[in-house]
Amino acid sequence: MLKEEVEPAARRIGQVAPEIVVFGCTSASALLGLEGEKNLVHRIESIVECRCVTVAGASIKQLKKKSMGSIMILTPYIPEVNLRLETTFKEAGLPISYIAGMGYDNDLKIGNTEPEEIIDFAKEHFPRAQADCLFLSCTTLRSTEAAPQLEKELGVPVITSNTATIAGVEEMISKNLPGCRVFGETEA
Predict the structure, then answer these.
(1) I need a labelling partner for 161 at 20 to 30 A (CA). Which of 63, 71, 88, 178 fits?
(2) DSSP letter, residue 32
(3) CATH of domain 62-160
């Protein structure tokens, strides 16, 4: 599906002359591995004629910046997807100590997962992880709503696919689009 859908979608997006494009699926880009993700970015950038951020790439970058030890990954995914995500993150040099998934295989179920369910799932698995950082994967999962409470209760940094992607876009804006303000910035 990814192969067939990316190019037509990129052509449609390219019609509005964007300055940055986000490939917004953690698992899809992670399933490709690092080399496949690099090729995906190149394909998208060549079609839309602007920079592209992938969620997996932005997440890896943020985890490298913020993590000071082992990383626990929690996902809504099924075991096969978790294995590919873990493999890609380890290939990128991240010290993954633990990964667990909720076993969901459709976006509607993932999107309807309440933040309280995410918090409960994290608290159930965290004691097994011996981790210094928690990564909550999936842009559809409402993990950004759960992250502040988890940071407070678990006492470790919590990074989500969405917060990592926002940080990646902000970084790209500040480096590549001089004069553009990043999210939350006000004019002086």
Answers:
(1) 178
(2) T
(3) 3.40.50.1860
